[in-house]
Amino acid sequence: MTTTQACTWTDAERGFREEITFVDDAMFTVTVAPLDAPRGLTLICPPLADDLVRNYRREVVLARRLARHGIASQRFHYRSTGNSLGESQHMGWPDLVDDARAALRVASEKFDDVPLACFGTRFGALVAATVASEHVGTPAAFWDPIPTLADFVRDVVRIERLVALSDRNPDAPSVAGGRTGLATRRLPTPLVDERDEHSITSVVSGGLGNVYVASIVEGLDARGTNKAIDALRDLATNVESVSFSYEGSWWPVGAPLRRGEDDPWPLIDQTVEWLVDALGAAQQ
Amino acid sequence: MMATDPREVPIAMPTPAGHRFGILSEPATPSSVGVLVLPAHGNAFGGRTRFVHRLSRRLATSGFRTLRIDYEGTGESAGGVSRLFAGSPAVDDAEAGARAVIDRGHERIVVIGYCYGARVAMAVAERIPEILAVVVISPPVLPKGGKAVKRTVTSLVRGAFEPARWGALRHRAGRRRYRSLVRRTFRNKLPWSRGRRKAMANVRRPRIDPMFLNDLTGLSERATPTLMVYGESDRLLGDIGRAADPRVDSLLAAGASSIEFRVIPGGIHGLRDEVAEDAVIELVTTWVEQHGDT
């Protein structure tokens, strides 16, 4: 595993530093750490497609606020997504999980012997659950976890069909243009082909420690998240679930116009609080 | 990755308001012309189709060192979380990006912007003496982010009960905006108001943002080679047509100024048409090659 020339900066006022690099000239990774030795490490597994765009800045803020509480974070973008290089037609479930493991190795080389937690949103929750279960007793936090890969692919297909339908309607509020296409244009083809093979139940091999689930209400059907929570109750030591509203995205109409770096953000702040407690308990 | 593929190099650009993050797509042998790519707001790498990422890589494959940046409060840059509007372009961030390219040995630079980034490119151009050319892809042309909205008393009252409104009202900026909106709507809708009579005359004809017109005029007066591209089904292109502003029309007329206006099949704005996006990427790359050295 090689890393390109890293870019680093420090926020001395808030007590953290960040290091960004490309692993093997391809995978974008961001390590966020407190200026003092960290008391724990959180692997942050991003979602895919539109979820990645919507969740991006929230994950940045989450990692920075964790660092302010003494917890290092490792963020990354799967190859062929976000800022990473690569072509999606080669990316299946094993490749995406391997990227998460590679990101964890980047952080592990920097931070020895600190307790680990895993975090993921939507598809990222499935990946985070996979990695967490490979490290016995690892706590995990999820935002709107998907219960199965098939559910996720079906959601994406439905949205794409609605978009294609609205694009034919000149009065629709969405932007005109675009073409009818399969959801595979937005998701890696091998992943779509594997959709019936992976679920929360199947990917958790060794059980999970304590789990925190935040349901982000966006006017969408919350059945998927509730289904995931039901599955997690059989797999985890303990599951704590909470609901938040108006957190579909940090960006569009309805969200606050501006949030300062230190402004309260309940979804993120409560997740940070839970992770700090969980990692503190894991250390004991 | 092949040895000749452009490398991606992350950089941090210090500004008085905290660092701004960018990614350089580095060709094996950079041209003397550098490129700065300014994304739409909220889409650091160009949304789900990674339009900005693909554009940057394509330009770098043609030999142009290309930098794409994250504005304050977006992507990996410092700041909290920001919603930005076309009427307040992040010119300081763009200037920092331009300097980062120029400081790497480029005496001339092309600035490319998409959507909100296009408005930033237009606004920052006069601040950069080294600018060679400007490319603006699907820029919004109307005030306040580019949407012509017909507000009625009914829509206002209905909107007051939408849960999303309560979220915005928790913040001072949201409350201030809402107060201004209520005042304007009632002032213009009351039957006896002069505002209503004036508004009725132009209710279906949107007004071009004066800042857009000013920046476009500036590009023309400075004779800066400019490429302006829309998709034929872009709503934003329709705004230009509906506004029917003779000042804009005269600047965009073929041969009238240094501004080249192109419309391609499909839709660019919204990043849902990869065929159109691919066409734009090739068009822009060819145009930059024609205006720069390779």
Explain this structure.
The complex is a heterodimer of chains A (284) and B (294). By secondary structure, chain A is of the alpha/beta class. Helix content of chain A is 37%, strand content 23%. Chain A has eight helices and ten strands. In chain A, helix 1 packs across helix 8. Chain A is globular, with a radius of gyration of 18 Å. By secondary structure, chain B is of the alpha/beta class. Helices cover 40% and strands 18% of the residues of chain B. The longest helix of chain B has 18 residues, at 172-189. The two termini of chain B are 23 Å apart.
Supply database-style keywords.
heterodimer; A: 284 residues; alpha/beta; nine-stranded mixed sheet; 37% helix; B: 294 residues; eight-stranded mixed sheet; 11 helices; globular
Q: What is the overall pLDDT average of chain A? A: 84
Number of extended strands of chain A: 10
Shape category of chain A: globular
Number of helices of chain A: 8
Radius of gyration of chain B: 20 Å
The pair of chains with the biggest contact is:
A-B, 52 and 54 residues
Measure the end-to-end span of chain B: 23 Å
Number of helices of chain B: 11
User: Which strand order do you get reading across the main beta sheet of chain B?
Assistant: 1-2-4-3-6-7-8-9
Distance between the termini of chain A: 32 Å
Helix and strand pattern of chain B: EEEHEEHEHEHHHHHEHHEH
Oligomer: heterodimer
Give the overall form of chain B.
globular
Low-confidence parts of chain B: 145-149
* Low-confidence residue ranges of chain A: 169-185, 249-254
- Biggest sheet descriptor of chain A: 9 strands, mixed
In round numbers, the mean pLDDT of chain B is: 84
Q: Radius of gyration of chain A over alpha carbons?
A: 18 Å
Residue share in helix of chain B: 40-55%
